[in-house]
Amino acid sequence: MPRAVPKILVIKLSALGDFVLALAAMKKIREAHAKAHITLLTTPPFEALARSCPYFNAVETDGRPEGFPQWMTLRRRLRTAGYQRVYDLQTSAQSNRIFQALRPSPPAWSGVALGCSLPHRNRLRDQMHTLERQADQLMYAGIWPDAPTAPGTAPGPDVSWILRLTATDRPVSGGVKPRPYVMFVPGGSVHRPEKRWPVERYSELARILYARGFDVVTIGGPQEAQLAHAIQRSVPRARDLTGRTDFASIAVLGARAALAVGNDTGPLHLAAAAGAPTIVLFSKASDPALSAPRGHVAVLQADDLSQLPVATVAQAAASLALSKAGAA
Question: What CATH number corresponds to the domain at position 125?
Answer without folding.
Answer: 3.40.50.2000
